[in-house]
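Known limitations

Structure tokens in this collection are predictions and should be treated as such. Users comparing against experimental data should check residue numbering before alignment. To illustrate the layout, the record for Tellurite resistance protein TerB is reproduced below. The input appears on top and the generated tokens appear beneath it.
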Amino acid sequence: MIVAELTDHERATLKRAAFGVVYLVSNADPGFLSMLRESVAASGAFTGARGLARDVLTSGSLPRFPRKDPGGVEAEVLPALTASLGILRAKAPDEVDNYRDAVLAAAQRAAEASHGVNASEAAVLAKVRAALA
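Generated tokens:
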């Protein structure tokens, strides 16, 4: 296994993409209590990740997203997911599945956290799966 050191920018891309997914799921089911439940559920997936994915997703500060522009966040997050896989394939190929699994688990757990998965959340999950394919 060859693992090259990730730059700060690459680490930020991986983290922003992963947390952006949770943001998109949370926006699909608005409400403070829903957001809180979803955030806690997603954080469990991130802390349960292995290897480099766990290191990237559980260290440093949390990314911030604009509350008034979820469409803009989606336009940033989905390509960032694809870019994240490219970064890992180039620098840490054995970590691709760990990262993908952590992001998908966080998205699914967030969607299920508040009264099950609604149609809007299912649509976000489908976009996330497509970006990670």
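For this record: Residues 8-131 form one domain. Residues 6 and 91 are 7 Å apart (CA to CA). Please report discrepancies through the issue tracker.
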